[in-house]
């Protein structure tokens, strides 16, 4: 027994150790404290440098010690890596400035929490970009608006390439873009703003074939002087001046794709892949340069210029008829990646930075704390229920689910993700799926024990019978999550990533870890009986009979909800979807942000979002107040009346567009629609088309019913609600597949029973499992609803409604649809029914059967 489970035990311990190591440190550490504690060579000498850096910050010469150390290394040509020999830097990188940059970036990364919180939970940094209108610009207002919208899309793509999870990007007024980044500090990473706003104009220009800048040499007509920085083989840096033709021979429009890779010496370079027209033009240009060089008696050169900076000027010996070219230069791996990303997403509008500031969390601290408290209570309630109902087996399930959560968080941390409320929604669904898998196994074991099997035989048989159902349920959810990743943006993609990780971790922990632990307890004799409570017996209900009534009643509620949506119109959308007013308030006395939020809520002004922000560099601290369109002045008046001593005065105001832009909304709808289609195709392939129709109808029913009840309750949609709706899709499908899998099994086990009775038998036998799974997830969501505030309350309310509708539809909507599709005829099912595939259950012992 121990020998056959040894590899599982070692793998489990390895996964546990990896997850814990990946998540440490759990909180950010001050950069100065971290580097002081981790210097491993010449500590006294380095601490003196650190003290000097701190003095530079106090004197206002730099924004942070991080920037100060970088400046000290640059000015003194001092290699800081000598103080941290344990951090390995590329041996062939001899440029001191580049080595220092890589070292400091790595130290900063290590000082940060491995799983930082998002803007909604912890705040971040933000900057506002303004589109520059040059003299002679003839674009009308509509064209400028289209360019700004395109710029927002490009900035979103660039920021995603930086690994920043769930940024907030939206239009401000008519010519500005606001970008808020969680987990990013522009004081320590000032280059990120430049990379976001870079126009990325790429030119291929001719270098003058005979003349070079020198005293007494005049600049030839049509040329300009540009400097080319280079790095020698020994790390020495230098610069040469060249005469570069002003008019380019070809531009970045000839490039179809660009990416970074190491060259033959291990140094980073950027590869440019040409379009068909670009390839032809590049051949013409290089042929012209080569011929000119031969006539001049020297090799001609081609200048590669990005945003008016000369990056490289390679020599050209002959015509180059190639699919690609490369940009080489003195830059790091990260700079090469950023350069390739910018080239792939060029801006056609120039942007200038107008403001940079730090922002507080968009969720009040009390809401964050209440959300944490509610999460602990919810998880505790689930654990108490599982242990109380299934005793020792329930304790094993709790251990497995705990490992499951650690693995999900560990993978998210390793991916550089940021934890936001939609991400938490994904973790809640993961917990639900993990508990569901264990309940499936335990209830199957109960059936086998009731049939008279021994505990050992019931254990193996129960796992075998539950295996197919668990795989099917998780694979259908995987279809949804993968499509969210492919087609979604922002919270949709983040939710999809979390669920995808959760699916694989659930399969690992439920089908391997729990099986191993139970096998050890049972085979060793430490667990002689499987003590389980049993207050739910298979009900004698004609589910098909009541299906018609349930179908009509629930769709009446759906119709009422849709009518409410039509009646309320755009008022159902919060600031994330509809935009609104933003007012900055100066003040003499700071008011607790929770009090501000409570006052605004009591004034019944709709959705309001107050938080404090400060300009980077020690500027004025302001209260940023976001409201629905047209309600900003009323909110200001409310605060002035409630807090007369605070001295609130309007320092500025503007109108912002939605952070959930039209593209994100359309992609969310596209991902949901394709998910439903993918589920139908998968279920039709794995089962048959009747099951697929039932799954799709029940899923659409659950989404519409949940949205309708949400709107009828007077609530508004915000960005995190997208994650909540997606959770309902995943939960509904998971529950429905379990019922369908049992119907398919009972059709095989009862070859002479009519379809109606088979459906009723199968549904009654999974009834207890459906209720128990719903109950455990409901307990977690109920704790969030009762003890959580703000958006946590809205999310948990949606979860509660979705859990009820999902359970209801799997029992009373999906199966009757399947029955009606086949017109109640078992032969019609058998004519289209495929045979359930056999999965090999590696944990079972065939001898036990």
TrEMBL record:
The gene is secD. It comes from Opitutus terrae (strain DSM 11246 / JCM 15787 / PB90-1). GO terms for biological process: intracellular protein transmembrane transport; protein targeting; protein transport by the Sec complex. Keywords: Cell inner membrane, Cell membrane, Membrane, Protein transport, Translocation, Transmembrane, Transmembrane helix, Transport. This is Multifunctional fusion protein. Forms a complex with SecF. Part of the essential Sec protein translocation apparatus which comprises SecA, SecYEG and auxiliary proteins SecDF. Other proteins may also be involved. Forms a complex with SecD. Part of the essential Sec protein translocation apparatus which comprises SecA, SecYEG and auxiliary proteins SecDF. Other proteins may also be involved. Residues 149-208 form the Protein translocase subunit SecDF P1 domain. GO terms for molecular function: protein-transporting ATPase activity. PANTHER family: PROTEIN TRANSLOCASE SUBUNIT SECD, PROTEIN-EXPORT MEMBRANE PROTEIN SEC. Residues 347-521, 648-823 form the Protein export membrane protein SecD/SecF C-terminal domain. The keyword Transport applies. It is found in: Cell inner membrane; Cell membrane. GO terms for cellular component: plasma membrane. InterPro entries: SecD, SecD/SecF_arch_bac, SecD/SecF_bac, SecD_1st, SecD_SecF_C, SecD_SecF_C_bact, SecDF_P1_head, SecF_bac. It is a multi-pass membrane protein.
